[in-house]
Amino acid sequence: MSAFLSVDAISKTFTVGKQTLSALGRISIEIERTEFVAVLGPSGCGKSTLLQIIAGLIPPTSGRVMLDGKAVTAPPRDMVYLFQQYNKSLFPWRTVLDNVAFPLEIQGNSSGRSVRQRCLEYIAMVGLSGSEDQYPWQLSGGMQQRAAIARALAAEPSVLLMDEPFSAVDALTKLELQTLLLDIWAKHRLTVVLVTHDVDEAVFMADRVAMLSARPSTIASVTDIALPRPRDTIATRESASFLSLRHGLLDTLLKKDRPGPTPDEVRVTMDGAAHG
Ligand SMILES: Nc1ncnc2c1ncn2[C@@H]1O[C@H](COP(=O)(O)OP(=O)(O)OP(=O)(O)O)[C@@H](O)[C@H]1O
Ligand SMILES: [Mg+2]
Question: Could you identify the atom of ligand 1 that is nearest to the CA of residue 197?
């Protein structure tokens, strides 16, 4: 039996004028229901392209994506996509409540609760109660991204796709949002694909990390992240297993840019003595 979300031999070539650019080589990965998979890779390797293909937003050149046994040829109803640029994805002329309600206006609301009740529930979940009547431009960046998360969740998807969702918020807010997202993921039993350039974030959040190679990208490695859950913002990051996983992934990502240690490499201590 195939996995819940299956990326099967996907390739993507872009044609611009007379030039063609091969972004994705041949990418396959099977993702189980409720699994949290992070995708890491060098800038420009095709991470966003891959996520957009999984979302049914752009077609692959070859290969196919299957969700729960059905081919993805258009954005599936139970899949949502969280963009990095919350300031471009929220409607400035709508309040927080009306932004969160937007997908329900398109999809309809068959949940049995009123749209307002349903939206207020998700606004509360992301810690924005009291701000529902404010406009996005009246909120901080972190609050805007919380509103975007509430809007994504209000659609009650089974799959959440995120493209560098925390890269535009400050460092502290990023840590808070990572933990918030993990809580929501566990509570709602979501299947998540997170694209990030942040090794620390990938190891902290994911069950597995898929590393893409440079263009045309293929999957260079898939690493199991067997860290216990629930994960703690500080303690998990200080654990030996976390540091070892982070080390391995960073090493792979940076390898192309720096020479590895040679056998005759020496370590020089503060007193100037050389050690083999
Ligand atoms: N619509 C498009 N038309 C032509 N080329 C494109 C298009 N979209 C992406 N590309 C090219 O495909 C390659 C991969 O782009 P993509 O945005 O997927 O990379 P990425 O891994 O997400 O990069 P980053 O880490 O910087 O966000 C790039 O060389 C980009 O220029
Ligand atoms: Mg990208």
Answer: 25
Instruction: Name the nearest CA neighbour of 149 among 77, 104, 83.
Output: 83
Q: Residue length, the chain?
A: 276
pLDDT per residue over 17-40, tens digit each?
999 999 999 999 999 999 999 999
How far away, in angstroms, is 180 Cα from ligand 1 center?
Answer: 29
Domain positions in the chain are: 1-78+161-258, 81-156
How far apart are the C-alpha atoms of 216 and 22, rounded to whole Å? 5
Task: Tell me which of 3.20.20.10, 3.30.70.260, 2.40.160.60, 3.40.50.300 is the CATH number of domain 1-78+161-258.
Answer: 3.40.50.300
Question: pTM score > 0.70 for this model?
Answer: yes
Q: How far is CA 45 from the centre of its chain?
A: 15
* pLDDT, tens digit, 9 for 90 and up, residues 48-107: 999 999 999 999 999 999 999 999 999 998 999 988 777 788 999 999 999 999 988 888
Whether 217 is in the pocket of ligand 1, judged by its Cβ within 6 Å, is no
Check pocket membership of 92 for ligand 1, CB cut-off 6 A. Answer: no
The DSSP call for residue 92 is T
